[in-house]
Amino acid sequence: MGDSPRLRIIDFFLDNPLFDFTKKEVIEALGMSKRTFYKYFGDLERYGIVRVSRRIGRAKLYRLNLRHPLVELLREYEKRVSLQMAGEESVAAKV
After folding, report:
1. What is the CATH number of the domain that holds 58?
2. How far apart, in Å, are the Cα atoms of 74 and each of 5, 14, 36, 46, 91?
């Protein structure tokens, strides 16, 4: 969806909506610096885009809040873009 750190974090969670992750796992998966991650992640949690799904000891695991209006819009957008791309590929294959 984009190269901004905030969008990269959201996109990671959009790609993995059924799973929860520690902050460390997200940082490692994105190859992002801790400083950059923490600069943006707090806003995503504060706005309710990501939420704590469970705790294991002292570690918190986070998951995308699928009921957040912005998340719903982004998921719908991704779905429409995917369907459009699939349709275009189908047409190109027939030619």
Report:
1. 1.10.10.10
2. 16, 8, 23, 18, 26
